[in-house]
Amino acid sequence: MTTRRAAYEARQRRRANLLAGGSTAVVLVLLIVLVPLAPGWEGVQASFFNAEIFARTFPDLLSAFLINIAIFAWSVPLIAALGLAIALARGARAPVLFPLRIFGAIYVDLFRGIPVVLLVYLVGFGIPGLGLPRPWNSPYIWGTVALVLTYSAYVAEVLRSGIESIHESQRNAAVCLGLSERDTMRYVVLPQAIRRVVPANMNMLVALQKDVALLSFIGPVEILRQAGIFKSLLANFTPYVAAAVIFLCVTVPATRYADYLMNRDRNART
Amino acid sequence: MKTILTATLLTLSASGAFAAGHCAAGKTLTEGTLTIATGNPAYYPWVIDDAPEAKQGFEAAVAYAIAGEMGFADDAVTWVRTSFDEAIQPGAKNFDLNMQQFSITADRDRVVDFSAPYYTAPQAVMTTVETVDAGAKPTMESLKAMKWGVVASTTALPVVTETIKPTQSPLVYDDNANITAAMQAGQIDAALFDLPTALFTAAVLMDNGVVLGQFDPSAAESPDQFGALMPEGSALKECVDEALAALTASGELAAIEAEWLQAAVGVPLIK
Predict the structure, then answer these.
(1) Rg (CA), chain B
(2) What pLDDT is stored for residue B148 in this prediction?
(3) A–B CB contacts, 8 A cutoff, strictly below
(4) pLDDT of A123 higher than 90
(5) B107, B149, B154: residue with CB nearest A234
(6) In a mutagenesis test of the A interface, which of B153, B159, B171, B174 is the best target, namely the one with the most A β-carbons within 10 Å?
(7) How far is A32 from chain B, CA to nearest CA, in Å?
(8) Dihedral through CA A35, CA A40, CA A41, CA A45, nearest 10?
(9) What letter does residue B194 receive in the DSSP assignment?
(10) Whole-number mean pLDDT of chain B?
(11) CA distance B158 to chain A (A)
């Protein structure tokens, strides 16, 4: 049984969908028709969208991507733990813990301010250069350390903003219930704060996922390096496009999943 | 007599003219000048002190010899700098010739044009005194056991993975400086370069560098040959090849090689 209002809304929705579909189709057609008309298109196509080279390099790129996934996978828990520790250190309220707050502030300033590439070089070549024996001088270990240092500084700031966004009344309520400072943080503030900063942290994950490629500067042959090797051997940029496709296959679903989580969370609260 | 000649040359080049009907006429980016690109920075012994205008260094000398053969006076040669990627990108190029130890390969040749080779580079193994003391020898067996590093934009990686076939997968770096850093950090044992680069890196960039041995280029299936890179379909290619043929025939190319790349003797061959 449709009311007049429901029927009207359905009509409006159809109209909106038609308009959106139509304008998208026009843009696509213009892109597909106009871009190849550009005088250099053939050259660009041969250099960036070469189907034969794409097919030839794709399997190797895919297996190199496993290294990215591995580095990413072992970095994330380390970043989460260290980021949380730094955020808590910066948020420590007891006067005695003032040195901890100073340390947290300096840590964040330092590692958020240094370009990741520099840190990767400095830690990846510098610390092993002090004379560590194998396998402790591995670029995988020290490259990961560099990523963890940088990203934990970012994540600490994100978490701190989440913690500070929790209204003071929540803490007061927890105190009234007899919870200790520690339990207040653990059971009242953090669960709400972390949930609130999921989108920002999801951004961090996507960024980290791409920055893992910076480790290639100190030796590991991950996907971007493998693409670079193919680029140089074949004098063609298509392998980079193939690498981008692989990256997108991971990052797009990840962001959509985060959107879904957030929507579900919002719907549950309203 | 000499001054008159120089004066004539100067006027000729100042007016940007050379013998009519010369093969390079109308084929360069700027009429009357030859624009040559090199790396940024350009390394010894290819270009000395990163100053190709000074004609010092093997590639700088070859560049001026080619230019001279094509009818360009020395001051009609302009230098630009490009990266490897700029040299192979699909758009318009800012150079007539690009000389920075580009190895000629069939795959690359499909995208850009190469001149005839001006140098055949033996591949050489650079390592450290410590690795040699630990028992490294110029034999395939010994090389297989090493941890390798190579520069990504060179043809060294296929040589390592297909000829040496080391037991551990090689690490790959952007440039020679990073290889040196990794070697000093003990992350790699050995690196593969062309011989002149290996000699320079071992002697100048490293404190404890040694060139362990070289691969016999005449024994290699596809020896590493350097050619000047030109945009695909360059009208200049024929002209450059002619100049290189003339330089080879007259022995001038060999003389330039002997002048700048002579220290190569005494490096053992890898068995």
Answers:
(1) 20
(2) 94
(3) 92
(4) yes
(5) B107
(6) B171
(7) 20
(8) -140
(9) E
(10) 85
(11) 9
Helical segments of chain B, H only: 2-14, 58-69, 84-88, 106-109, 129-133, 140-144, 156-158, 176-184, 195-200, 237-250, 252-260
Q: What is the mean pLDDT of residues B186-214?
A: 89
B154 touches chain A (CB under 8 A): yes
Q: How far is residue B42's CA from residue A124's CA, in Å, rounded to a whole number?
A: 26
Mark which residues 184-213 of B lie under 8 Å from A by CB. 184-188
Q: Sorting pLDDT into bands at 50, 70 and 90, what band is B224?
A: confident
For residue B226, give Cα distances in angstroms to B50, B161, B173.
19, 21, 21
- What's the CA gap between B49 and B174, in Å, rounded? 21
Q: Please check the confidence at residue B12 and state whether its pLDDT lies above 60.
A: no
Q: Does pLDDT of B127 surpass 60? A: yes
**Residues of chain B found within 8 Å of residue A121, distances taken between Cβ atoms:** 181
The CA distance from A109 to the nearest CA of chain B, in Å, is 28
Q: How far is CA A27 from CA A20, A30, A35, A188, A206, in A?
A: 11, 5, 12, 49, 28
pLDDT value for B3: 52
The answer on pLDDT for A181 being more than 60 is yes
Closest-approach residue (CA) in chain B for A229? B152
- The tokens describing B143, both together, are 């090389």
pLDDT tens per residue, range A191-214: 999 988 888 888 898 889 889 999
pLDDT of residue A3: 87
Q: What local confidence, expressed as pLDDT, does residue A251 receive?
A: 85
The position carrying tokens 């609260």 is A269
- Residue B208 burial (CB count, 10 A): 14
- Return d(Cα B169, Cα A212) in angstroms, integer: 19
* Contact at CB, A46 and B90, closer than 8 angstroms: yes
ipTM above 0.85, yes or no: no
End-to-end CA distance of chain A: 27
CA-based nearest distance A217→chain B, Å: 6
The pLDDT of A14-32, averaged and rounded, is 92
Asked if B12 contacts B73 with a C-beta cutoff of 8 angstroms, the reply is yes
**Quick check: B149 contacting A, CB < 8 Å?**
yes
